[in-house]
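Table S2 (text version). Query chain:
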Amino acid sequence: MFQELVSHNNDIKRLLLRGYAIALDSGHLVVRDIPYLDDKGELCWGAIVCKIMAVDNKRFVMEDHQIYFAGSHPYGLDGRPIANLAGGPHSLPLISEDVIVQRSMSNKPPEGYVDHEHKIDSYVTLLCGPAMERYGVSPLTFRKVMSEGEESVFKLADTLTSRAEIGDLAGVFKNEIVAIIGLGGTGSYVLDYMVKTPVSCILGFDCDLYHVHNAFRSPGRLVDQEELDRPKAEVYQARYDGFREGLKLFPKFIDASCEEDLRSVTFAFVCVDKGSARRAIFDLLTTMKIPFIDVGMGLDRKQGKINGTLRVTYYPTESANEMISKGFADLSDRPDDEYRVTVQTAELNALNACLAVLRYKQIMGFYLDESAFSQILFKVNDVKVFGDEGAR
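Corresponding structure-token output:
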């Protein structure tokens, strides 16, 4: 990634060739070896950190005119804090242990900055000038620095994470291998959300074919008419292959005999609507001690308009059997299923998936979780989401 950055961005290449100790860290440009004076006039070394924004997967531009600084406030030769540095105390999660951001800074010339080189040079002149004059030091050390956080499952630069300053939180997914069992209405949206989550690997299973009705309740558009009547696993594999690594979708039905398929899985989403299939999957997951979330949707048109409930139920490893015994999910086939019209709509499939992925990310520690509900229900008629205390 760093070599790609240098090769396709001349302003960053010029900074490197001139001797700046630059590297990447969690989607940020880091310039180390920045000399400055502290409040006692002593020489200190800091680092400048900048957010960068991807134009495409090769070209990057400045996010804004601000920088972050790993160090205390710089002082001038007169013993006073350097002026015209707006901002203030700020922390920024980075992987590098030697770069601890302490503050943000903002100094924008009237005409703005032309590129990264112009921006770094301007801040270096402002911050380093006094130290360079007093101690004869230079930020141009020509030191080679290893970039951090370059390994990524994404084939595009994840500048969303760096812009939101949540790189440390995203790290909780690093070793996760997630299975999505069922790629139908809700499962396809779970897949879409998880593809954009930096888990190590996603395994998906569905033996059904992709038909026209699937196009009306799945994310994205029908890319080609030839997608129709092909296995869902193949259709979605082709759609998402350009986005990330570690995506393996199989046209396969999961039952009690599939232990080897789930051998390395750390978490699973169960997105099937047939009770007997769910029963076999639950038995397999509990036997293998894999925590999982099951989704369900019960909609009907008994009152002339569509009403019903969406369900997201969490089955932790230590209490999965207890949760199963409470009967929140149908584990047998209804006698009238063959004749029953199953009502599902794209927005409710997406919401069901959204609640499931949100709950998973709470469990992982990405989102705050103050209730630890094992079940979340959404009522269509009054548009309310609430945790089921009886499921805790």
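Notes on Table S2: Residues 167-391 form a domain with the Rossmann fold fold (CATH 3.40.50.720). The chain has two domains: 2-149, 167-391.
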